[in-house]
Amino acid sequence: MQLSEITKHLEQLAPLAYAEDFDNVGLLVSHTNDITGILVCHDALEEVIEEAISKNCNLVVCFHPILFSGLKKITGKNYVERAIIKAIKNDIAIYSVHTALDNHQNGVNKIFCDALGVTHTKVLIPKQNFIHKLVTYTKPENVNQLKAALFDAGAGTIGNYDNCSFISSGIGSFKGNDASNPVIGEKNILQKEAEIKIEVTFEKHLQNNILKALFTNHLYEEVAYEIYKTENEHQNIGLGMIGELEHAMKPAEFLQFVKDKMECGGIRHSQFLPNEIKKVAVLGGSGSFAIKNAISAGADAFLTADLKYHQFYEAENKLLLADIGHFESERYTKNYIVDFLKEKITNFAIILSELNTNPVKYF
C-alpha cells in the first residue's frame, strides 16, 4: 500500500487538528512511500524498530511521538536519536497519534472508560476555540444547493446533530464597477435584491473545505461572507472523560477492580472517603491539570497518572484521586488502533507489537 493511503485512515482515526498545540503528531519519519506492513506500538523505541524490521513492517504507528522536542544533533547518544537513526537506515516510517487521539470522543479516554465498563460518558474538558461560524448571503433559488454543499464539506454539525443552519431573509444591495461582471443586474447600476442569510458553524480545521464549497456553489461573481471565531466549547472533542459505573463500589473494592482491569503494578491514591464510587472521571496519561475539572463535574473518583506529592492534597476530601500509572492508563490504545486499521485496510499486514515499552517497573 501507499503511505499516503494509510495516513488518510490514520487521520480519520485521529484528526491531526485535534492535537494539542504543544504536541508533535502525524508523520515523524518518512523515507519510503511503498508500505509492506504496519507495526502498531505504544512507544517507537529502538527495539520496536528492530521488531518492525524482523516482521517486514516499514511503517511504525506509535501512540507517543518518539520525536517530541527539536533535535539539534543526531549522534545516537540517547534513546530518541538511536531509534530515529535505526528507522532511517532501514527505510522505516514513523507516525504518531498521541493527543489527536486523546481528544477524540472515541479515543484514549473512551477506551479507558470501556475497559472499566464506565457508561453514559461525556468529555471532561471540552476543547475551546475550535468552532468557527460562517455567515453568507445568496438568492433564494441558490439556498438549497449552497446549504447542501456546505453540509457535505463538514459544516452544520452540532453535537449529535448535523445539517444545522439558521436562515433569515432581507434585502441586499450592490453596484458593480466597470470591471465587474454581475450575474444579476448591470454594471454601475445600484441593484437591490431579496436575499437569504445563511449561518452555519464548523470545526476550524475544515475552513478551506468550507470556503471551497461556498465559492464553487454560490451564484454571485463576488461572494459576501464573514467567518467568526466563537467561544463555544466543542462537547465531543477534548481531554478526559466522565461517566458512571454500572454498580457503585466501595473505594477499596473499586481500586482493586481498576488494578485488575488495567493490569496496574500498583495504585497511588488519596485517602478513602466514606461515599461509594459511582461517577468516575478518567484522563489517560499525565492528568493532574484536570483534578479541579473532575471535582467540578461531581466525580466520586478521578483516575489518571503522573501525580506529584502535593497534588494528592488537591482531592480536598471531595473525591478519590488515583494514579494508576502512565502506561497503564493508556494500555489498550494500541489494540484499538490495530482494530481500526484492520477494519479499514483488509488483507494487509497490521501487527500489534509484542514489546512492553513501559519504562516504569514495580518491585
TrEMBL record:
<dbReference type="Pfam" id="PF01784">
    <property type="entry name" value="DUF34_NIF3"/>
</dbReference>
<protein>
    <recommendedName>
        <fullName>GTP cyclohydrolase 1 type 2 homolog</fullName>
    </recommendedName>
</protein>
<dbReference type="InterPro" id="IPR017221">
    <property type="entry name" value="DUF34/NIF3_bac"/>
</dbReference>
<dbReference type="InterPro" id="IPR002678">
    <property type="entry name" value="DUF34/NIF3"/>
</dbReference>
<dbReference type="InterPro" id="IPR015867">
    <property type="entry name" value="N-reg_PII/ATP_PRibTrfase_C"/>
</dbReference>
<keyword id="KW-0479">Metal-binding</keyword>
<comment type="similarity">
    <text>Belongs to the GTP cyclohydrolase I type 2/NIF3 family.</text>
</comment>
<dbReference type="InterPro" id="IPR036069">
    <property type="entry name" value="DUF34/NIF3_sf"/>
</dbReference>
